[in-house]
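Re: export button greyed out
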Amino acid sequence: MRDYYTITELTREFGISTRTLRFYEDEGLIHPVRRGRTRLFRPADRLLVKQILRGKRLGFSIAEIREIIQMYKAPPGEVGQLRTIIAKAAERREELRQKRKDIEDTLAELEQVEEACLGRLAELRVTS
Amino acid sequence: MRDYYTITELTREFGISTRTLRFYEDEGLIHPVRRGRTRLFRPADRLLVKQILRGKRLGFSIAEIREIIQMYKAPPGEVGQLRTIIAKAAERREELRQKRKDIEDTLAELEQVEEACLGRLAELRVTS
DNA sequence: TGACACTCTTACGTAAAAGTCAAATAATCG
DNA sequence: CGATTATTTGACTTTTACGTAAGAGTGTCA
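Workaround output, generated via the alternate export path:
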């Protein structure tokens, strides 16, 4: 496990631009440390980037990703805040279950598409 | 099964605006018929809207949704096109499986968040 | 017949999420 | 050390997916 990654290392690993990483920092999603003016990304920052990109793949906005990420941080001491987090986590989980169902449905439809195409191909081979 | 739906009926059913439905038509995703200038949506159009919104929930762009929807149409007669569709369907399915894995991972993390919060709440009750 | 709800087209506006470019530093390698 | 490569900030631009507003037509109920 490396101590630090440069910005370009991460852009290459994840296939994103430096602009994107700086944008995520501006948005408060990551907080790389500095040596002089240069950003140094720690393993924890790298993990956050992974989680951000995962959120993006699932269609979450930056604001939503920020909210989800903040839930991962150490639970605060106040009862009200804990209850809020529990409620929000429950909402997101419900949303994710809906997305999972959407995926299952779409997968089933695409399998049908493939079968239909294969069937048509078979027909064509017989006919020709 | 109704013959036709008005634009407003669909906006109410799906919680979207007329602008959105007209936009989807401009984008070639749906093709409601006309009585004069007025759009009439058939059950098939309504189903398409459902599929579009499902695609949106999964984070697909309009262009991607258009591509997916076009795969659902009757398979063409040409072998090359059939192969292209099969390949594209396979790609999308792989992508969907990735998204499903992303969902499982995020769900697991959110469950941990909830447990941590519940644990912290229990501590607070004991301590207080 | 007039009010009201619904619909149409056209056009400009906007928020999110970066892309792109410039000019200035900083780091590294032969 | 000098050349090259990487990084920084800042500003402007772009794309997507609609929102919003104007101005006009259509339907229908009281």
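The mean pLDDT of chain B is 95. The button fix ships in the next patch.
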